Amino acid sequence: MPKYLIQSSYTAEGAKGLMAEGGTGRKEAVERTLRSCGGSLEWMYYAIGTDDLYVVADMPDEISLVATSMAARASGAVTSRAVPLLSPEDMDAAVRKTVDFRAPGA
Predict the structure, then answer these.
(1) Given this structure, which CATH class describes domain 3-96?
(2) What is the domain partition of the chain in residue ranges?
(3) pLDDT one-digit tens code per residue, 73-101
(4) Among 17, 25, 46, 87, which residue has the fewest nearby CB atoms (within 10 Å)?
């Protein structure tokens, strides 16, 4: 199942919700949201810095990822971006592919 790193930041409204529910309450909400589209939570950590939250999630496909992302963003409580993650075996498969590429000017 494809794996994604999701980096999120709370808006002021989202921070108020986090303060009301606490970290474990939001973790349960994230797990429920991912499960609703066939996904699962691998891990979730809060952070201090540019992003407030880091999640690694398994999702069945990009459509499911986009559906959960759009629902969260539409709430106005969070902004996010997702990075597809590749395993070492995925990278092995990628480097074995033959690519017909010519550098500019070569």
Answers:
(1) alpha beta
(2) 3-96
(3) 999 999 999 999 999 999 999 999 999 99
(4) 87
- Spatial separation of the C-alpha atoms in residues 96 and 13, rounded to whole Å: 47
Number of helical H runs and strand E runs in the chain? 3, 4
- Which helix (DSSP H) or strand (DSSP E) does residue 57 occupy? strand 53-58
Residue at token pair 């993650």? 85
User: What is the per-residue pLDDT across 45-76, written as a single tens digit (0 to 9) for each?
Assistant: 999 999 999 999 999 999 999 999 999 999 99
Report the alpha-carbon distance of residue 63 to residue 80 in Å, rounded.
16
Q: Give the global pTM.
A: 0.88
The one-letter amino acid at 39: G
Length of the chain: 106
Work out the burial of residue 101: count CB atoms within 10 Å of its CB; fewer than 13 is exposed, 13-18 middle, 19 or more buried: exposed
